[in-house]
Amino acid sequence: MKKKKINKNRTGSNSFSHGIIKGRLEITRSGMGYVIIEKDGSDVMVKPGDFNTALNGDLVRVKVTKQNPRTGKREGKITEVVTRRQTEFIGYLQLSTNHAFFIPDSDKPMPDLFIPLSSTMGAKHKDRVVVRMVKWEREDKKPVGEVIGVLLPEDRNDAAMKELIAQNGFPLVFPDEVLEEAARLPEQISEEEINRRRDFRSILTFTIDPVDARDFDDALSIRFLSDGWWEVGVHIADVSHYIQPETVLDEEAYRRATSVYLPDRVNPMLPETISNELCSLRPHEDKLCFSAVFEINQRGEVRSCWLGRTIIHSDHRFTYEDVQEIIDSESGTYQQEVITLHHMAQKLRKKRFAKGAIRFSSQEIRFKLDEKGKPIGVVVKESKESHQLIEEFMLLANRHVAEKVAGIEVNHQPIPFPYRIHDQPDKERLAPFMVFAKKYGHTFNVSSSKAIANSFNQMLDDVVGKPEQHVLEQLGIRTMSKAVYSPKNIGHYGLAFDLYCHFTSPIRRYPDILVHRILQQVLDGKVRPDKKMDEKCIQCSERERAAMECERAGNKYKQVEFMQDHLGEILDGVISGVASFGFWVETIDYKCEGLVSILSLTDYDDFRLQEDDFCLTGRRSGRVFRMGDKVTIRVVAANLDKRQLDYEWVIKNDNHKKEGKKQKN
Question: How far is C-alpha 215 from the geometric centre of its chain's CA atoms?
Fold first, then answer.
């Protein structure tokens, strides 16, 4: 078991006490700033007058000017803005005869933007608008911006989603020069390019995607070989053929680093002409791919893997539902090939778990939306064998690509490469969970990392269908480290892979584009080590986290919007979290989470948090609210601005559902 590296003093470390340091600025609501240092997580306090045009979330360089010798706390001044986290903002326009100013909606202090009258896009006084900051020199008192969109009052949902995207540092629109460069990319594939590639157009190939997918970045080909083995090709859209380094397209893709998926839209990493047209593996069209081609048998044994650029022609577009029906009924279009792939995938899956992969699965929901984006229903997304079919072949390709690159050195040094890594569990975080799990009869063997994984899997098998299933799954996931990108490979614990990378989704993830480029250099024998790989991995990991936060906030907004139509209803739910100020409940029917404040419980008892038992306990009655417990709640408030649901605990009785419907009416 790896020992945890302990940061003894968050406020300073000897190696970074003085000089100019790079980090990310975090501004508090009071206006004080702290630059969080990338190297060790320490910080440098910066007063508002020393921000030097930096805004919240910007990557900056800060000069340390003083340090408290007793506490180690440091103060400094920002000397340079390296990269802006956010350049587009939502707020209100103040328009006068001679000038205009933009007042941003933000809980973080920031200056108003000066808007030239020629850049208002026809917006009127007090209109809600989207503004892009175009210039802010040190000598300018105010940053200069331009209006790039006007938000109509009736489009509240659209404005809310755009605000979430902008707040998390993702551009809402592509700059003109990016769109122009994308428009110049050739639609036709030249014979010269075809001749450089392995041709799969005559081999059965198909895609399997969600029913509402618009971009298809992976396809599978399959053909039977004469000796009882099969050739299975994992074909990935060759985005790196079109997105060349040091172009404005590449710079914009790197800046975004990922697409963002909200309930009613996708904020893409690449312009639609690339993601939905040029690179999308649409049926009955020739497409350029980067492929991993395996010779594999029905036992999931791989005897060879070929990697390289290809051209394909997809014969059919399947949805996951189509494939699941073929698996269940053993009949349908290309049934033999689909069922063969299914059997292979299940064998690969079984082997992966036997090696120590963890079987965590989280329940996902999506909202049914009307034509204006308003949620009118909730659908629980299940992972079935059709999803596992694609998942296992993507994992197989990702692993083999990582193994190929890891086997090459340049000047006796490993190639800088964006590995996808996942650290082993930390014993300190695992200990309280083990104590809690033991109360339900589950014991953990911590003698090795594989033993811990086996203990997790045994617990997950044992709790299926039991009341404690949800709480143990959720708490177990929280004990895990987060997967990130890094040039320093430590393996992927959750998948039980020694080497792993992301190769299979270059339309929506920038690290995959980096992987394609490096892999081609390896295949050509002309590797050019990227000295900035560490910085690029940090950028991709940070943008991934921001996208996840944005997606969570978008889902929460839809939950609140949906529950506005259920105010006053009494519903059954499960306690999904506890804190000193109350507990969270996820409703069983709608999967919407809200807070039961401890203040609303004072009429019943004085409740106190028991941290080691993940519960609130009444001092007089002994009443316990524990994670995983089923409770009954009333929906009392749904605040869209705060994305917050408030519930009240009610004592369940036989007529509670009838009462709820009556109150709603």
Answer: 18
Give residues with Cβ within 8 angstroms of 14, minimum separation 6: none
The predicted-structure confidence for 191-226, as pLDDT tens digits, reads as follows 999 999 999 999 999 999 999 888 899 999 999 998
pLDDT at residue 459 in the model:
93
DSSP 565: G
Q: Using CA atoms, how far apart are residues 308 and 290, in angstroms rounded to an integer?
A: 6
Q: What is the DSSP letter of 390?
A: H
Sorted by sequence, the CB contacts under 8 Å of residue 8 that are 6+ apart come out as none
**Measured distance CA(551)–CA(542) in Å, rounded:** 14
Q: Report whether pLDDT(391) > 80.
A: yes
- Cβ count near 259 (within 10 Å): 19
Task: Work out whether strand 302-313 and strand 198-199 pair parallel, antiparallel, or are unpaired.
Answer: parallel
Determine the 3-state secondary structure of 314 from DSSP: coil
pLDDT of residue 604: 86
Q: Could you give the C-alpha distances from 436 to 230, 320, 610, 626, 629, in angstroms and in order?
A: 47, 37, 12, 11, 14
Are residues 135 and 87 in contact, defined by beta-carbon separation less than 8 angstroms? Answer: no
- Taking the C-alpha atoms of residue 475 and residue 459, their distance in angstroms, rounded to an integer, is 12
Torsion of CA 171, 174, 176, 182, to 10 degrees: 150
